[in-house]
């Protein structure tokens, strides 16, 4: 049966699209050969896989032409958060991609969204999983903003996805295979905390894969296994999911081919052949050489098999342990299925060190020859007992998937057209006149507290300070027992947490209604889905969880009703200064607090809230459990107060000081100083990226 007839039959059976990753030309060709309906790739800027090889604009043009010639769609993942200085190159790239005619962009940044909708309307937009869309309200807001598809958060169960699908007419995309992040996507700040390499900007250093010490034991406590939803494909199709996505832009062609082939086999099988198809598919998955597999969160909101602290965090097929090593020759005990050309990863499990090498030759007795220079000098005498994994093979290199098979783009003049359009758009993005007429020496300060009953300790003494509280039944009960006058109510804002699963929405709506009935009118949103809640007539601000790093994103939030949008805590001073020039208004920032580095749905039985977690560098962290979610919080708070004068000078004049206890204990009484300089003396902490550079 020819491919055209097969595709027609699949459409008639309403089979979801199979979306494959490609980080190299070979992986792209592998995805096409294995039967992908669509392929997503990354440009060399503004993508969430910055460490990959990625593709030039010219290559993307050729990939698009090649994919379209085979009736396959080509998506571009432009899913990083951009800094202010990156806006001009983003505009040019958007212009080029529109001229090329790619099928869709996958984005998370609200600034990119604003640029695309205003200036490049032909571009079809998909909301990235990094936007943390996890309920029907988030999908509704994405629809209003102009997205045509939403990539749902990976922490949802089948039941939750089914509820969302019933309530939405938008296209839904879900991940079905590949690496899983410990933190809910879009809410991880651990990598940035380690040295400015932000995960939401594609530079994650994978702190979740590292070894930690907890309760006297060492382990990979936060390293998740890979997702594999082979057996759940019929259920996802019945729910109405439109696209099934495979993770893996950093994976080799061998992985892409076998994983895509596995899911293609399942999707093409009818009911009578499904059992046989599953057997064939499992064989392909075994050949892909990923991490240990699980069904993710699909069958449970707290699965037991996602974490195994005693196993290594790397990908690959375990071969055995090194018996001896000398001058590039390794003797391996255990399995011997290694051949010349395979790539291996050698792992020193105890100290979290590893390196990879190509096998130059291999014997049946397990003697492997690698280039001696690939072994780090300080590891040459410590390889005995190290673990060996095979993670790539030359098995498929002779197949027909070389760059020479690519079509050359027929859009020869897209460069000139795109450049002319981009130049015009950039000229329209000149900084507005500075609206800050007078030099500001004192910020407006908002204090974030745990317990509403503590308000009486502060409110009467500090008329210039406002307050922020979590919107909860407990805090509203406290507010109802206190006689809070109208003047004080105007100084109180209620914070909505960034994660609210579908079954929690009705409770959240009830809390908002109760707060409104009590006379409160100010709310802080931390997820775009909150905008679909009953806030008519309310005054809205936003939290740092929306990951805003540029003036275009700030302007979009203002346009959709956010009175005071807040900047990301991951930013640096240079970026705030550049953004402030183009925004022209005062910027709001959280300047002190213990911030969650991980926010996760996983609740493992070994996670102990009483004992600290220690990294190999000696850093201490604490685990906090709050109903459905877990948080990893650094013992060291973040504080930007030492740089306060600089913040005021560049327009960051609205400050939030988070005095909540990060470990769930009762907040100690804190005597508020009379000026922000008093806060600076009392609240010391790490400056995060503010005094260095966000990467």
Model description:
It is a single chain. The chain is an alpha/beta fold and 695 residues long. The protein has 4 domains: 16-180 and 225-256, TIM Barrel (Alpha-Beta Barrel), CATH 3.20.20.70; 189-223 and 596-636, no CATH class; 317-392, Thrombin, subunit H, CATH 2.40.10; 440-594 and 637-682, TIM Barrel. It is built from 19 helices and 32 strands. The strands form 4 sheets. The chain has a 9-stranded mixed sheet. It has an 8-stranded parallel β-barrel with strand order 1-2-3-4-5-6-7-11, surrounded by 5 helices. Strand 1, helix 2 (25-34) and strand 2 form a beta-alpha-beta unit. Helix 3 (57-69) runs parallel beside helix 4 (87-100) and helix 16 (551-559) packs across helix 17. The longest helix is centred in the middle third of the chain and has 16 residues, at 253-268. The radius of gyration is 26 Å and the shape is globular. Residues 7-12 and 400-404 have low confidence and may be disordered.
Give me some keywords for this one.
32 strands; 695 residues; nine-stranded mixed sheet; TIM Barrel; alpha/beta; single chain; Thrombin, subunit H
Structural class: alpha/beta
| Main sheet makeup | 9 strands, mixed
CATH topology of the largest domain: TIM Barrel
Q: Work out the number of β strands.
A: 32
In angstroms, what is the radius of gyration? 26 Å
Quote the beta fraction: 15-25%
Helicity, in percent?
25-40%
The CATH level-2 architecture of the largest domain is identified as Alpha-Beta Barrel
Strand order of the largest sheet: 25-24-23-22-21-20-32-26-31
Helix tally? 19
Distance between the termini: 50 Å
Mass-distribution shape? globular
């Amino acid at each position: 049966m020819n491919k055209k007839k097969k595709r027609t039959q699949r459409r008639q059976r309403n089979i979801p699209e199979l979306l494959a990753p490609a980080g190299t030309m070979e992986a792209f060709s592998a995805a096409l050969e294995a039967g992908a309906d669509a392929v997503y790739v990354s440009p060399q800027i503004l993508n969430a896989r910055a460490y990959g090889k990625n593709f030039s604009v010219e290559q993307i043009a050729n990939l698009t032409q090649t994919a379209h010639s085979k009736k396959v769609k080509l998506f571009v993942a432009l899913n990083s958060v951009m800094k202010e200085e990156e806006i001009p190159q983003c505009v040019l790239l958007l212009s080029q991609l529109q001229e090329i005619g790619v099928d869709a962009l996958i984005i998370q940044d609200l600034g990119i969204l604003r640029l695309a909708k205003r200036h490049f309307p032909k571009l079809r937009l998909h909301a990235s999983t990094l936007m943390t869309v996890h309920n029907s309200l988030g999908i509704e807001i994405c629809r209003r903003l102009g997205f045509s598809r939403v990539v749902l958060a990976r922490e949802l169960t089948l039941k939750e996805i089914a509820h969302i699908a019933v309530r939405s007419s938008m296209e839904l995309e879900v991940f079905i295979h590949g690496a899983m992040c410990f933190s809910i996507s879009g809410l991880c700040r651990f990598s940035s905390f380690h040295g400015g390499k932000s995960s939401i900007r594609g530079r994650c250093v994978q702190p979740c894969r590292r070894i930690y010490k907890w309760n006297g034991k060492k382990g990979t406590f936060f390293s998740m296994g890979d997702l594999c939803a082979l057996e759940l494909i019929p259920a996802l199709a019945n729910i109405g999911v439109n696209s099934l996505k495979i993770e893996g832009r950093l994976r080799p062609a061998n992985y892409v081919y076998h994983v895509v082939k596995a899911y293609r086999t399942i999707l093409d099988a009818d009911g009578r052949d499904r059992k046989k198809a599953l057997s064939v598919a499992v064989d392909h998955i075994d050949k892909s050489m990923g991490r240990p597999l699980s069904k993710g969160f699909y069958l449970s909101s707290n699965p037991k098999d996602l974490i195994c602290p005693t196993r290594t965090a790397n990908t690959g097929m375990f071969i055995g342990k090194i018996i001896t090593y000398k001058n590039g020759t390794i003797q391996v005990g255990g399995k011997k299925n290694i051949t010349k050309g395979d790539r291996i990863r050698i792992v020193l499990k105890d100290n979290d060190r590893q390196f990879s090498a190509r096998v130059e030759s291999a014997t049946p007795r397990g003697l492997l020859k690698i280039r001696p220079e690939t072994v780090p000098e300080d590891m040459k005498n410590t390889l005995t007992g190290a673990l060996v994994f095979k993670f790539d093979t030359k098995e498929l290199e002779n197949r027909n998937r070389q760059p020479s098979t690519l079509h050359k783009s027929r859009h020869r003049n897209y460069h000139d057209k795109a450049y002319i359009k981009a130049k015009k758009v950039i000229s329209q993005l000149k900084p507005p006149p500075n609206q800050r007429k007078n030099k500001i020496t004192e910020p407006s300060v908002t204090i974030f507290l745990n317990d509403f009953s503590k308000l009486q300790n502060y409110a009467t003494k500090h008329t210039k300070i406002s307050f922020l509280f979590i919107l909860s039944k407990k805090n509203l009960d406290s507010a109802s027992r206190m006689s809070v006058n109208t003047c004080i109510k105007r100084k109180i804002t209620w914070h909505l947490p960034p994660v609210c699963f579908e079954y929690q929405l009705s409770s959240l709506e009830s809390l908002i209604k109760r707060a409104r009935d009590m006379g409160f009118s100010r709310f802080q949103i931390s997820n775009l889905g909150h905008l679909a809640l009953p806030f008519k007539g309310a005054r809205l601000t936003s939290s740092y969880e929306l990951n805003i790093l540029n003036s275009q994103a700030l302007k979009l939030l203002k346009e959709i009703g956010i009175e005071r949008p807040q900047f990301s805590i991951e930013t640096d001073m240079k970026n705030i200064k550049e953004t402030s020039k183009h925004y022209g208004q005062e910027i709001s920032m959280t300047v002190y607090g213990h911030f969650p580095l991980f926010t996760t749905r996983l609740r493992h039985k070994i996670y102990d809230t009483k004992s600290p977690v220690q990294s190999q560098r000696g850093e201490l962290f604490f685990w906090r459990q709050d109903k459905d979610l877990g948080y990893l919080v650094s013992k060291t708070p973040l504080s930007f107060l030492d740089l306060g004068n600089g913040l005021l000078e560049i327009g960051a004049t609205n400050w939030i000081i988070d005095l909540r206890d990060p470990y769930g204990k009762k907040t100690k009484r804190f005597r508020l100083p009379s000026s922000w300089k008093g806060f600076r003396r009392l609240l010391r902490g790490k400056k995060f990226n503010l005094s260095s550079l966000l990467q």
